[in-house]
Amino acid sequence: MRIEPRQHLLETWKATIQSSWRDGAWRWGGRDGSNSISDAEQLLCILLPATQVGPFGLDRPNATADAMLEALRPLGDEKTIPLNLVRIATEYFTRYVDNDRPIFSGGSYYKPDDGAKLTEVQQARDIVDSFAISVTLSLATIGFVRIFRQSVTRMGLRRELRQLERLASTRLTAAMVGLLRSFSTHVFEADDDPGQILLQTVNKAGLPSKTVVNQFRSVLQETIASFNEVLIGSGQTEDLESANALFECGWSWGIVKDAPAVPLEYKSSGREKESTAAGAPDEPAEEIGPQPDGVAENKPYLYFTVVAVDAIEDLFSERTRVLGLLNEEQQRLSRALQLRWDLTLTYWATVATFGGGPVWPLEDPPWQTTDGLRSEYYTLLVTSIVVKDLVRKRGSDARLARIGSVLSDLANEARVTRKHRPGDSGVKLHSPGLRVSLEGSLEDSPDEKANAVWFVGEFASLLLQRCIAIAGLLSDVEERAVLLRLADRVWDHLARRRLTETGHRKLWDQPALVFDDLPEYESPSWYYTERVVAGLVSAANLLSEEPLVNDRLVVRAFDLLYEAEHLYDMELMRGSADASLEVMDVLTEIRAKLERARAIARTRPGAASALVNWVLMELDGLEAVRHSESTAI
Q1: Among residues 296, 270, 313, 272, which one has the least CA distance to residue 182?
Q2: Which residues are within 8 A (CB) of 286 and not within 5 positions of it... i.e. 6 or more apart?
Q3: CA distance 213 to 188
Q4: Distance (Å, rounded) from C-alpha 320 to C-alpha 303?
Q5: Is the pLDDT of residue 93 over 70?
Q6: 252, 279 in Cβ contact below 8 A?
Q7: Could you give the 3-state DSSP secondary structure of residue 419?
Q8: How far is CA 380 from CA 166, 453, 466, in A?
């Protein structure tokens, strides 16, 4: 892999600090202004590597690497850097609270439809993107505080950490409630327009519609039955009993209209409590404020479904479990979200690979949604969900390789790995990106003139993440190499799109540097930069794992090892160890390398073979010297 994630993450850290830290204060906002999503993305450009990549850790001051300190030098030294990050995070969590209720609005990310102006009420509406990014940020913050607190002895600082953890925990709970109330199950009859489109998508064998409906319901019968377990939030349905009923599930763009409030049962955080003095009262209960009424249509959106699925996965990650980041109430909410996560993955993976024929629906792009919209972007989004399902079910290399082929085709279609020409439709996938109309954002109010629109332009960065994700799952060395080469080519594309202006250099995104006919920007897009950072984090974690083991190479390594060990024993029998000091040193080194080669032959057969090859060359050299001396006599 040519990406070199360590170096590029360090460069991104330096660029983020240069762009955001001015005169001892953090400057919020980027290309699209300041809002609850953009500001979280800006902060995660630092916190994601710091909490998910071991060498980048900042929460243990005495163990912080010099390279990390140099990258973040404007924030101070190993002790003041984590303190400044704590205070910046505290500023974020207090910035987006209104009357004790966390704010999850899209703000300046909302765009008006047909040039009309959005009202403040429309811009203030909660959106799934904010719920999702808040889950990721809150978990990263709580984990950071938990570890850093072990190095802090001053009571004033410990109070600051306790306050930040409380703020992050409250926002986490509110975000989880928002995700529960944004889940949607869209039911329709097979004869309706959405039903006809869905049948057209999955019916690659040309079977009668009734047969496909029966197969569809049969394959998903457990999923259909599981909707009876969806008891809190939104997503309940009683319309699936009809033998002709079809459905889709996932997340709408915001809280679904008429979604019931989620009852919060536990009154204690359940976390270890600290007190400033003996006999101090228990930590107060988390209050997330009133739960607002929903306005979003009861229908899943692919983009928001992928965003929610990614965030929910963080709730049951190894880091979350090991550090115990969830309190009792959040564990209950997490179980409810995991049920929806499982149902969503099962549904979309089934639809994408339906029929088991030579061609999956996913392999016939562009993907068409049930409202008749087509785009390669939708194909990429569906691919993202299928990959997660294969991770969960430990899918075979053959199935993973088929997904990899789809990604390769998408890279070509989007002109990521192929030179573009003027007028290429694939350029629109990058700018302005996928246009998502947020149905339901327009209410019956004289002040509201049009629905809000959401633009999604992360195509190349999402493509990078999915290439790395599949490569990490493959056990076939050659197939993995194919995906890693594709990831390298996608990264080459992304690297060319870095900003070059002073003050924001090496941040993203400047698509005009790749696509000549696109507008240029001066400020960074934290939306895009954070997603590139997430891809680099995935690459760093992949490269931190042991390499794949090729069974053929293991056999070859042991064959070489057997020969080398035998030749070494022959040298000892000939009395070479009693020869000159130079020969004795060579034999000692040979013995050490043979022992090392045997120890790693099954896990690193290539390295073991290299060691044995050196041994064989040295032994052959001894044999050649002996032969030369005997010939001279």
Answers
A1: 296
A2: 166, 169, 170, 173, 264, 269, 327, 329
A3: 12
A4: 25
A5: yes
A6: no
A7: coil
A8: 37, 20, 9
For 86, 151, 495, the CA distances from 160, given in Å and listed in that order, are 8, 14, 38
Q: Using CA atoms, how far apart are residues 179 and 340, in angstroms rounded to an integer?
A: 10
Q: What is the dihedral of CA 268, 273, 278, 279, to 10 degrees?
A: 0
pLDDT tens digits along 439-453: 887 765 666 667 889
User: What are 529-545's pLDDT values in tens digits?
Assistant: 999 999 999 999 998 88
Average pLDDT over all residues of the chain: 89
Please give the Cα distance from 205 to 212 (Å, whole number). 10
DSSP string for 280-328: PPPPPPP---PPPPP-B-SS--HHHHHHHHHHHHHHTSHHHHHHT---H
Q: Which amino acid is at 417?
A: T
Q: What is the DSSP string of 433-457?
A: -EEEEETT---S-TT--S-EEEEE-
Q: Are 617 and 568 in contact (CB under 8 A)?
A: no
Mapping DSSP to helix (H, G, I), strand (E, B) and coil, where does residue 33 land?
Answer: strand
Give CA–CA dist 322/603, Å, rounded: 27
Q: How far apart are CA 557 and CA 319, in angstroms?
A: 36
Helix axes 477-495, 526-543, angle to 10 degrees: 150
The region that residue 442 occupies, defined by phi over 0 for left and psi between -120 and 50 for alpha, beta otherwise, is: beta
Residue 194 preceded by cis peptide, ω within 30? no
Give the span between the Cα atoms of 293 and 531, in whole angstroms. Answer: 30
Tell me the three state secondary structure of residue 100.
Answer: coil
Return the higher-pLDDT residue of 416 and 357. Answer: 416
Q: Cis bond leading into 509, ω under 30°? A: yes
β 434-438/452-456 pair status: antiparallel
Q: Which two tokens stand for residue 522?
A: 């001066």
Cβ atoms of 258 and 208 within 8 Å: the answer is: no
Going by C-beta distance under 8 Å and a sequence separation of 6 or more, which residues neighbour residue 344?
249, 250, 251, 305, 309, 385
Tokens 């569906």 belong to 382
CB within 8 A of 260, min separation 6: which ones?
A: 181, 232, 233, 234
Residue 58 backbone dihedrals phi, psi, to 5 degrees: -120, 0
- Residue 507 is given by DSSP the state -
Query: What is the Cα–Cα distance from 295 to 308, expressed in whole angstroms?
Result: 18
Pairwise CA distance, residues 451 & 54, whole Å: 44
Res. 507: pLDDT tops 90: yes
Tokens of 42: 């800006």
The span from the CA of 358 to the CA of 552, in Å, is 30
Q: How many helices (H) and strands (E) does the chain have?
A: 21, 11
Please, how many CA atoms are within 13 Å of residue 605, restricted to the half-sphere of its CB? 15
SS3 at position 580: coil
* The predicted structure's pLDDT at residue 14: 96
- Mean pLDDT across 250-258: 94
What are phi and psi for residue 455, nearest 5 degrees?
A: -105, 130
Is the Cβ–Cβ distance between 362 and 382 less than 8 Å?
A: yes
φ, ψ of residue 589 in degrees (nearest 5): -65, -40
Q: Residues 6 or more apart from 369 whose CB is under 8 A from it?
A: 197, 302, 378
Tokens of 136: 């990721």
Instruction: Report the SS3 class of residue 374.
Output: strand
Rounded distance between C-alpha atoms, residue 96 and residue 171, angstroms: 9
